[in-house]
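Protein modeling request. Please complete all fields; requests missing the sequence field cannot be processed.
Requester role: graduate student
Desired output: 3D structure, token encoding
Chains: 1
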Amino acid sequence: MELIPVPHSPTLQLLVAPSSFQRKAAITFIAELAQTGPVRVLDGGNRLDILSLNRELRRKDLLLYTALEHVQVARAFTCYQMTTLLEQPAPGGIPTLVLNLLTTFQDENAPLLERLRLLETSLYHLQKNARHSPVLLIVHPQPTEEPFLARIRETADRVWVFEPHHPAIQFSLF
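Delivered output (174 residues):
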């Protein structure tokens, strides 16, 4: 994860990456930030792997329970829940990681216009929070999420994009 600096200054950053890289990056960022103080994690895809986080914290030789006390996790399963979580500012300007934001906006029970309205509200609160503390969005977008992702990219101060690596296939002549 040395390619992406851990966000310490007030900005809104977006990391777009394949699922496997995204999970490793999230764990690395959380562990890094938990070393120095509290970090708020908003999980929209219910994919935060606490066991991997425990392993990463132990690998860094941190006091496990102290570091885990620094990690504040909230989960959202719908766009309504995610918007509500984002409306609450991070206490004391602590860093916020938002995992799989787009997943919550794929709720087909909510009309598209309502989801777009809630996305705008969420982005407003993310920008507002990013004025006082670092905010990092980590997403692995699906093709159906492209309109939402485009709007998030416009809003972010910095965007990091990692494409999956597909090794070249050599065909045999015979």
